[in-house]
Amino acid sequence: MPDNKTALEAKLETAAFRPTLSICIPTYNRAEFLDENLSLIVAKARPYNLPIYISDNGSTDGTREIVNKHSLLYDRIYYSRHQQNRGIDHNIATVLKMSQTDYAWLFSDDDRFFDTAIELMSGLLERHRPDMVVVNAVTNPDSMKPRIDSRSDLVYDDMALLLENLCFHMTWLSTLIWSRELIERAPFGKYDGSALDFIHALFSALASGKRRVIWCSEPCIYIAKGASISWKGRVLEIYAKNAFNIIFGLPDSYSQDNKKKCLKVMGTRTDAFSLHGFFLLKKSGSYTMESYRAYRQYLPFVTNLPLFLCCMIAILPQSLFLKISVVKRWMSHD
Length: 334
Hints:
The protein has helices at about 5-15, 30-45, 65-70, 90-100, 115-130, 160-170, 180-185, 195-205, 235-250, 255-270, 275-285, 290-295, 300, 305-315, 320-334, and strands spanning about 20-25, 50-55, 75-80, 105, 110-115, 130-140, 155, 175-180, 215-225. By secondary structure, it is α/β, with parallel strands linked by helices.
């Protein structure tokens, strides 16, 4: 073998080479984001011969044409389309089950890889063979500040501690690299329609047997500029009501205390139910007295704010919060 040939190049030349990792993308009516994402992913996946699986949730835009365009340039793209929208939960389960590799990186169509992410993860998976990897991420592509900057690399063998520490972060589906065994064991579908069914399926599967989950503190992904949040108007439903039902519906190997800590961290660390989070909900018009009454029973589990303050925010008119927002913008530019 020539001295200048890399180990990767040599491995790719062997007939027995089989990629350890695949990229799994659930998508729906986001052809523009998917087009840009595939352009970037294919360039990073090609040197490793990684397959890319795409499950289309019945898109009515040009998603199929975008996939066809990239498939002509890279023959490791596998595409499936539902005849109608089955919901994000079903689509996530579908695309994970499509994969045939030992590990599947669940990846949103509007997230992006850092340049070294695939190389880093491919090496880590080959060396350690964990049940799952959870990667750090960047929420603001301008600042590029890690979402979690206070925790170094760690191997979790206590799934209850993982639930408490990282479940809030793991609701960002692109942070998760699943092993084939976890996918096969995960009881998908119990909370179909919740937007968090994959969290229940994942932690239920992790509760069976002895597990090892690696936390990678180096950011591997970031959200694309201009990306929209499809569930923006459902924050209270998803992260209060649905999260409560899903977390308390986990196996008894997670204690009630584990579950309570998980929910409180999820509601506060994601900023969904901090004072700032309620301000944003009120400004958007999605937090009213009606929604307060509907979700009041769940709020003590997901926020540190007293209920009377949550009630006061609900009572105040949306116009007040819009005016405050205008003043804040004016002061920031002054």
